Every structure is written in C-alpha cells, then in structure tokens.
Amino acid sequence: METLNFLMQGFGVALTPTNLLIALIGTLIGTVVGLLPGLGPINGVAILIPVAFAFGLPPESALILLAAVYLGCEYGGRISSILLNIPGEAATLMTCLDGYPMARQGRAGVALSLSAWSSFLGAFIATCGMVLFAPMLAKWAIAFGPAEYFALMVLAIVALAGMAGDKPMKTLVAALLGLFLSCVGIDANSGVYRFTFDSIHVADGIQFVVLVLGLFSVSEILLLLEKTHHGQQAVQATGRMLFNFNEARRVLMINLRCGIGGFIVGVLPGAGATLASALAYSTEKRMAGADGQFGKGDIRGLAAPETAIGASCCGAMVPMLTLGVPGSGTTAVMIGALTLYNITPGPLLFQNEPELVWGLIASLFIANFMLLVLNVPMIKLFTRILAVPNWALAPAIAIITAIGVYAVHATTFDLLLMVAVGILGYAMRKLDFPLSPLLLGFILGGHMEQDLRRALSISNGELDILWSSGIAQGTWAMVALMLALPLLRLWRRRAARRQAAPAALAE
Amino acid sequence: MGPSIRRVLLAAAVLLLCSARAAEPVSPECIAPAAPGGGFDLVCKLARQALQEAGLTDRPLQLSYMPGGVGAVAYNTIAAQRPAEPGTLVAFSSGSLLNIALGKFGRFDETAVRWLAVIGTSYGALAVRADSPYRTLDDLLAALRKDPDSVVIGTSGTIGSQDWMQLALLARLAGIDPRELHYVALEGGGEISTALVGGHVQVGSTDISDSMPHLNSGAIRLLAVFAEQRLDEPAMAAIPTAREQGYDVVWPVLRGFYMGPKVSDADYAWWKNAFDHLLASEDFAALRDRYELFPYAMTGAELDAHVRQKVALYREMARDFDLIR
Amino acid sequence: MLLQRLFLAAWLVPALAMIYIGSAYQAPFAYEPVGPRAFPLLMLGLLAAGLVYLLIHPTPLADDPDELPPGVEGYRKVGLGIALLLGFALAFEPLGFIPASTLAGLCFARLYGGRWLPSLGLAVVMALGLYLLFDRLLDVPLPLGLLAGLEI
Q1: Residue ranges of domains in chain C
Q2: Which of A47, A179, A180 to mutate to test the interface with C (most CBs of C within 10 A)?
Q3: Residue A132 falls within a domain, yes or no?
Q4: Is A386 inside a domain boundary?
Q5: CA A241 to CA A369: how far, in whole Å?
Q6: What is the pLDDT of residues B80-89, one digit of tens each?
Q7: Least CB-CB distance to C28: which of B15, B183, B323?
C-alpha cells in the first residue's frame, strides 16, 4: 500500500504542466536523435544534460527529461530499421528482420504502429514490474556473477541458432566471424592487444557503430544503386497506416511473454536490450514452428523484439536506481547526470529521495503513453521517407552514416573501416550470408569470453563454478530446452509420418 | 532558405569579430578520451560548468568524446594531427600517465603534449563486504601471506592498471609477490562494488569516489584509503589510511587537462590563468565537492615537472614488476 | 558458385593468418587459467572449419524475385559507388565536412540518376543543414577543414 501511495505522489510530480511539457519535448527530441543512424540514446541523453542545467531544471524534471529522451531514442531507432533496413542501434537489429520485409510488402505503416504498440505494452509491463518488485529484483541482479552471465550468453548464442533457417552453415560462419571480431582490441583480462596490428585506432576494439553502419547502411546504399540501375524504387508505401484489432489480438500473448522476459533481462546490469530482443525473437520463432513466416514479414517477428526492447529499457532503470550500477550505456550517462545534482544513485536512493524515484517511475508511464499518442499520427509522415526518390535518399543516407561513424572517434580511420566493412556486407548480402548473426555474435562475444574467464579466474580453473548456483542451473536448463525443442519437433513430425504411413497403406 | 542563410552568415561575421577582440581562444572544446559517462566525461563537465559560472568563458566548452585505447587515440590525435588548436583541452588522469609509462600510447611519451592543469583528485581504496572477516589491512595481509591464492580480489582493469598497481605496491611492502595474488579483472568501480556485495569477489581494489554509494548504505567497508592523511569529509573521516596502518602506499587519482604541443604560449597562458583563478575560488571548491573530487590544484610549469616525475616513477615501478622490459 | 567459392577463399586466408598471429598472444604473467589466446583461436578454428565445409558444399543462392542481376553496367556503378565512398571518407577531414559532403552528395545524387541542378541544390542544402543540425544542435563536432578560417 505504501508503494501505491508513493506512486501516487510520483504521478503528482510528473503530472505538473511543466513536467508534462518537458516529457513531451524530450520524447520529440529523442525520436529525432534515435532516427539518425549512429546516434542513439547515449548521445541524446548526453546532449541534453547541459541543456537541463542551463535551464536550471530541478533534479526530478531533469531526470524526467532524460527518461523521455531515452525512451524516445529507442523509439526513433526502429523507424530507420523498418523503413530503410538500417538498425539505428544494436537492439533494433531484430526489428529489421521482419519489419523491413513488412515495409517492402507495403505494410510500413502497420509495422511502425504495431511496433509502437508492442513497445508501449512492453514498457508498461516493465514499469508495473518496477513498481512491484524493484527492491527485490535488485537483490536478484546482484546474485548474477560471471558464471551466471556466461550461462546467459550461451543461452543467447544457442538462441542465435534459431535464426539459422534454411542456411545453418552460413549463419554459423557469420556468427563466428562476429564472435572473432569481438576479440579485436585490448583484452580486459590480460591487457594484451589482440589483432590490432599496432594501430591505436582499433586498440579498444572495433566500434559497434562502425560495424553496424558499414554492414547495413553502406551495403544498403550499394544495393540501392543496383535497384536504381534497374529503375526500381526501394520500397513502396501504400496501404493501412494502423494495425487492426485482429493483428493486435494475434500478438497479445507474445506481448505479455516478451514483456516479462524483456524486463527480467533488462534488470541484469550489462545484459541490455540487444540480448532481450534476440532472446525474444528466437524464442518466439521456435514457438511458432513451421507455421511462422519469420524473416519474411511476420507480425509476430516484429512484435516480439519490440516488446522486449520496450520492457528491457525500463528494466535497465532498476539496477541504476537501486544499485547505482548502469544497466546500459545510457543509464551510465544518467548516473553521471544525477551526480551533478549531488544525488548518488544507489541502495539508499529509494529511502532518501522517494519523490525523485517515484516521480521518475511515474514519468516513465507518462512518456510511454505520450510516445504512443504522439507517434501514431506521425507514422504517415515517417512513411513519406519511402517516397523520397533514390537520387535524394542515397546521398542523405551516405552523409548521415558518415557523421554517425565520425561521431564515435572523430577519425578518418573509422570512416575507411566503415567502407571496408560495407564492401564485406555487400558481398555477404549478394552471396546470401545473413548479417544479423554476425552483429549479434559481435555484441555477445565480448561478454561471453570475459565472463567465462572471470568465472574461471574466481574458481581457479574449476569448471564446477559454471553450474554451481541455482540461477546458473536454471539458465542451463533453458539452454537444454532450446536445443531440445527442434529435435522434439522433428521427432513429433516423424511420429506423425509414421502414423500417416500405415493409414496410407490401409487405403 | 536564402534570407536565413544570409542571417546565419551575418551572425557568423559578428561572432568572428567578437571572438577576435576577446583574448579567449576560439571554439573552446573539451575532449573526453572515453565514451560518455565516465570520469573523463565528468571532469570535462566540471570544467565547463565552473568556467561558465565564473564568467571566464563567453561560449561554453563544447564537449566531445574520443574513446580509444584507454585515451591513446586522443593523445595521438592531439600530438600529431591537431597540435595547435588554441581552444582544445583534453582530460587526463593518473591512469593516462601510467599508460604513457607502460608505452601503451604508441610512439608518443609524456613530452608530446603541454600539461595544463590538475583540478582535483580521488584516492585509491581497498573495499570489502560489510560482513567480511577482515577488519583491518593487517587481517587481510596476514591471510594473503598465508595463502596468496585464497582471497579473490576484484580490480578495475587488468595487470598494470591503477587498481592493480596500488595493490601490487601494498603487497610488496607486506612481503607478498603481487604475481601470486588471485585477481579478477572487472569493469569500473561500480562493477567492483556489486561484485563485492554479491559475494563474487572478497576484496575490491577500487577508488573512493566509486565506492561512496555502497559505503553510505553500509553494504561495504573500506579497509584503507591510499591518501596521505584521513580525508576531510564527515562521511570519510573514519576511514583509516594505509599509511597509518603501517603501509606507506599513497595513490592519488589526479584529474586534469592537457593541450596540444604547438599551442601558442599566449593561449596556454590564458587557459592557465583561467584555471588558476578558478582553483583559488570558493565556488569552485563547492562545485568540485559535488563532482566527488578532492582538492588538488596544480597548473603550468609546476604540473609539467610533476607529470614528468610521475611518469618516470611509474616507469620504474613497471620495470620492477616486470610489466615492461 | 565460383563467385561464392572465391569469396569463401578470400575469407579463409585471413582467418588462417589470424590463427597464426593469435597463437602468439600471451599475458605478461599467467594469473588466470584461460588466458587471452584460447577464445579467439577457438572461434577462428571453428570459422575456418565452417569455411572449408562451405567451400566443399556451397549452398545455392536463394532466388529473390525482387532482385535482378545487376549486369556489367550495374557492377560498374557499384564499383563507382565504392570509390565515391572511399573518396568521401578520405576527404572528410582535410576538406572539412561541408565541402566534402557537398561534393559527395552531388556525385551520389548524379550516380543515382538525379539531374544536375536539383542534385547540386540538394547537396548544398544537405551539407549546410546537417552541419548545423549535428555540430550546432546535437553537439557532434564536425571538421571545418577548408572553412576553418571562417568560423561558421
């Protein structure tokens, strides 16, 4: 009951006209920043901290602004994923898989609105979870040590196999390349520089932005060139702008499942939205089985990752508020911002600053709602991007992509690396290699290796540590289930055939 | 579009005139050689806010991020490609100096840039969980002496990092071979605190600013802080120094700025004066406290000499520990 | 098939080279049981094995009804596009963002079949607009290059 009281107080803070206006501006700016490839919530939040200061906003308003920008950016990221097949950030990688095919079938409006709806539901579930369980979850998140994280990463990698489809070998090779690329740069455990060839530019590894923009954006520009050569326009925008009731009903269970799952993964510091969306997508793909059109514009393949992203973004606030540990890069910046206000996020925040915490949680509710209301009417505007002729679209993508890459290190080297990666991406796409496993392998590989080595450092090489805790055992059980599911289906199909065979004989 | 471009150009011309008249270097910029959110980011923001509130800069410092090789990319860029920019400051810390000493900054050494100012410091510290059996530094060192392998120690970064160095110095004073200790490389002070609370490591070699949240909540204790004397703050006055427990290890984590090697003396002097002015003011002291930094002020030639001395010292230490040959 | 095999081979060679390079990595002194070498070598080993498998049994390309073979002229254009991107990357810092983007934007628009005048207009507007948007509003510093003296 006390919690509810606090939440009511929080709404009192968040619903003041000034704070509502701030949330509105925040979501708008966030959407624009998120839309630009290469710029993500980290940039959006980092840019607005000084602005919040300059206007002398009180801490709760500043935090509301940052939360709104954060959610807005996550929202904006999907627009380029669905319309242009360029993931604005790591998490929206999975959104491309079914979102872009939908746009190509002329269902861009449906894809955009359904993704907004899904992510709203995900965020809603997660915010409810926060209200109910935040302090308890904080304890649970702390119990996650290197061994448990390693098990979780293995689960994600196994889930990757769910994306393999009809070309398992090519998927495997792409994922392995990604896993290898994650090793480039200084090794956090030993300090050895690996595969850097004495170049300082890759000393801290290949930047994700360079890889994602090279693989997707540059290769898209080159493919667009081919299409222009044949006189094709990239994608036609026609048809409905909104999803209908039937579609919403079809994905409702997915929204619920992925919302809860996404929230749980989001709460773990460092795991993040990418892991949540990858797990959600592959699990749903497996559950849908043979009747799914996953990868070819299935609305379920769009709803699953989007719900998980929405949920995990809110979930990432839990470790930030309760432990002072950033759950993602963006929350790291937000912790920095709080420090400026002389507020130290951590175990005491809920006790010492209840208005602030509950005001923030209430504003997450409001920002989510605002995003949905704001963006649905804007979908028509967004889909206009598709009507831009290629001769104007291609230079715009090229220049904005270059800015996004340049923004990371401010070096020419990264731009050249991006072009090189782009050529690889183009060749891979021409030869039917999937790109997303490469990127997922890249993102997960670093964590997987470091966590394994940390775990084994703690235990001095004893492998037992990897499955000594209940959490780890639970995760391994899920890995086993993931591996067993396709076998089970195969077995069932065989059994069905065997049943069918005598029947056919009898006729 | 036409008139607005004209207006922009006009505004540009006016700005140009203004900036030419003031002695303030044009387009002041602070480069944080890391991703947003870390200590470098904060020290740039501290400088921006302080300079602006004191009315020392007309235009606020523009913040940019240049992560790469733990600061190596920024160092090389300033030393080689952008050596003469009068308005560009780059943040550094003791960790950067350590990396120079270890040769991790490529072909450039500590003489390749102009060291401008140190505006604050933090101190290294050893943390344990509140219910840990180790009450003092001696307890811990006794356990390590008996079996160096028995205690799992979390450090931020790897062998040769600041966290590792302070621990290695301590171990050596206690007659323990630092190579035999049982490390786990974690990322950042926040992660060390959670790993301690979660019971994944038993001791954390970290710094005091990063430990504050969990220290205040009572989840962790500090066995020692590596400062000259006890820290002058109510929450920290009770933390014993390593020195008073009989181990003379002092490890300040300086935070400051350097500039390009070809920046003119006039511009360098302008910045030095601005920071001298700032560091002497009360307002800045209050602001610095908010950013969780302790007082440390050094600018200009004095700092330059100090940096050289530090790097030389680190180099010697690194050789002692077989980190460089 | 031939194209695919060539691509796989072009991939296999660096992978093998990396295995050779990677096998030399060693920590200054061993304090952890696994070390910096095991994981990348394992990944590279599996990668190489996968590539060899694909070299022997290449998978036929899926037929995408949307995609027409680009033909010689198409590939020539793609080559031009790559060259243009490279030029843009190299000119980005020395020329500065605005001149480099104007030039690159114009060439790209032309390559994709834009007419001269609209292409030029688009390139100029885009270069200036994006500069103002990113450098001034979004705090992403872009190089001024040739225009450094102007202090826009």
Answers
A1: 2-56, 79-149
A2: A180
A3: yes
A4: yes
A5: 19
A6: 878 888 889 9
A7: B323
